């Protein structure tokens, strides 16, 4: 399919939730819109299709007050989040869901306190193509239908290679089709929405991991950071290259397709301990699985990490939610070590057994004395309780870091305008969703939520363009 015209009010790069929300809302507001998607497949792969479908705001229901949501975002990111972006997300979280509902997108309510809005049918736990005809997949179907009803265009198999300003301050878009044909479009505005840079090893090495090949791609594998590259070429700014949203997976995810995108080992490591091959702790387990996945990725050997637990942890924390490992991880054939002797298990796992026993004993002693803060690294209980590792049998799980999307990226303001290094907006250039930075991350790897960030900022971009940038 080729564009029916060559000049648009808005061109959107990427057809995941962020880009499609921007496109549909812009069409509703009377703009001429084209969406350019590099995949030619009807069911083009993007993280939206793989999503669990939970619309939350920093693990809180979007129906909470804007003040409460904003405070949670700032607390979880340890004040890292750009204040105006945080306020925009918290003030518009529920409204973005209501807008999606007005299009016919359905939600259900789950059991956890922040599971008030889950895309229906849910995909909280799925493998293989379990996402087909489920929440994220159907959401994209609805958005595409609405785009076409408003005479917008979705061009599959059209990869954007570069952006350049014309003498008239339009954005010229250089495109390559699946058939390797080159073409150009002009747009008054461009919204970049091509996901993060999680599948680009060159960018990952800048802040995520020295060994990106040892970080598991828990994602659609479609996002290469092309939008970020184009912004840099135009003189735009990037917020950071550090931090990602992801989870601790069994190391066997690299060879066993039944072990991703679920189950997670977050709760096991968070309640017990995470050690390296030397039997030493290297991160604060109390900051949760997303933080721990980031710390595993930063190891010299990201495939040399192990979650340590006992029977109480396995029984009480292993099945806290649908993504938990008990018994799904074992049923899927993951490697693990179970027995009454931690010393023997350490030998089997390839861990320094003497050092591991010392590490576990020190931990148990300090936990009993309520002095976890004296450990190195210090241990908190921000995301859940710390359990003693005392009840037989013991468990050792080889883990890996599974990356879903990167938290750093194109620097934007609260209107989704792309900023240059002096923090000034670049004319007609916007970015939304996982390709952007400045909201999530920081020293504690604060997580706000990919779906809510994409929906809110997608709407913000379209509405700002309609009002100010035509």
How far is the first residue's CA from the last residue's CA? 26 Å
Number of helices: 14
Computed over alpha carbons, the radius of gyration is: 23 Å
Classified by CATH, the class of the largest domain is Alpha Beta
Q: What is the level-2 CATH architecture name of the largest domain?
A: 3-Layer(bba) Sandwich
Average pLDDT score? 95
Strand content is 15-25%
Structural class: alpha/beta
Relevant CATH superfamily of the largest domain? FAD/NAD(P)-binding domain
Per the principal axes of the C-alpha atoms, what is the gross shape? elongated
Give the biggest beta sheet: 8 strands, mixed
Furnish the topology, listing elements before pairings.
Elements: E1 7-13, H1 17-28, E2 33-37, H2 47-50, H3 66-76, H4 83-102, E3 107-108, E4 118-119, H5 135-149, E5 153-156, E6 158-165, E7 171-177, E8 182-192, H6 201-204, E9 216-217, H7 226-233, E10 244-250, H8 266-271, E11 273-276, H9 289-297, E12 305-310, H10 311-317, H11 328-331, E13 337-339, H12 342-349, H13 353-368, E14 394-406, E15 410-411, E16 417-419, E17 425-431, E18 436-437, H14 450-468
Parallel strand pairs: 1-2, 1-8, 2-5, 8-17, 9-14, 15-18
Antiparallel strand pairs: 3-4, 6-7, 7-8, 10-14, 11-12, 12-14, 13-14, 16-17
